[in-house]
Amino acid sequence: MKKRIIFVAMWAACLLLMLPVALWAAPVKIACVGNSITFGYGLRNPMQDSYPSVLQRMLGDGYEVRNYGVSARTMLRKGDRPYFREKAFRDALDFRPDIVIIKLGTNDSKPENWKYGAEFEQDMNDLIDSFLYYAPSAEVFLCRPVPVRAEKWGITEEVMSGEIYPIIHRIAGYRGLREIDLHKVLADKVELLEDNIHPNAEGARLMAEEVYRVLQTPPTKKEAKRLKKARKAYAKR
Question: Which CATH number fits domain 27-235: 3.40.50.1110, 2.60.40.10, 3.30.870.10, 3.40.50.720?
Fold first, then answer.
């Protein structure tokens, strides 16, 4: 009887060793940080159709994608509804993600918010630093926000593309962060912005596809070298 028990135990151990290592690997944690466009405002079922939800299905079980989007929030601390003050922000930090995707700036373009535009760069750097404090090895991606089809609620394409995106691009450059150009994805499909600001389900799907593409496409050797050099220079500042 004792020999039989030992045999069964050894057989079970062999089976476990034969299972893929990935079975025990923790999923890659992705935090999608943003405003209503990330949350999925205007969609019939944000839990299913928002870009983070679609991204989760595309990436599969090896990833855990969480949606930390909050409608109407700003990157600017002095904006009317700063993301910094939200519980979602604290929850995202506690998540200690492996990957952070930041898509903020749309609501900052409103005149009442953009009067503090000179502080946008510092506030975004502070947001990035907050995540890297809690998750030092996290990879941060900065998104170029989707286009504005026509002015609404004071949100304009002029401020978005002319002022806010250049700042985001500059931060990504000197910090060695990769960018995700969601503006380009919808630039010739503005009909998917049915209320002029928020993508419909098809637009959210296209956003998810672009995020997926960037996540699954490693930088070229030349780009990787540039990113590494920028990160080192920023760390020594």
Answer: 3.40.50.1110
